[in-house]
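**Paired protein data**
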Amino acid sequence: MTRSGKLHQVRIIGGQWRGRKLSFTPADGLRPTGDRIRETLFNWLAPTIEGARCVDLFTGSGALGLEALSRGAIHCDFVDSSNATLSQVSDHLKTLVAVNRSRCHPVSAQQFLKMATQAYDIVFIDPPFMQQLVGPICEALTKKQLLSGDALVYVETGAMEPPAKVPLGWKIHRQKVAGGVAYRLFSVD
């Protein structure tokens, strides 16, 4: 809990759990993707989210992966190095009766990608800002062949950060800036 004793909340904005509010304990550096950005992102993903296999790297509050499951993704892996944060996501998955469509991995995104063997249709990359984590993660996804044929990769960074270098064959499908956040959706050949 915060000093004021308040939990923070994330609201599912679409799909079968639309309107559900899920509480989480705030932590340093934890900043859930805002409602407006998530709404725009999932409008972009609408044609492909149904039946997609997803991974939410740097899970944090779980807002992106939970939204994906709510909107029809068949599976989502939640990856975060914070056991406390991931435990809250696990509790939310139990509450939403989505445990059979998900898996929580209490490791860093880098460690997870070293172990991963399954290809994903949609990847969410929302790391702590200003730490230059996006480029190496994108490179690992390509090198390990963890992207399906028409994969989409969502990348969220600070608006003042230079765009991360992404592998050849990745094309910006959509991009926007909202406040201090730059967000891009890449299509991967």
Summary: The chain has one domain: 8-188. The mean pLDDT is 91. The radius of gyration is 15 Å.
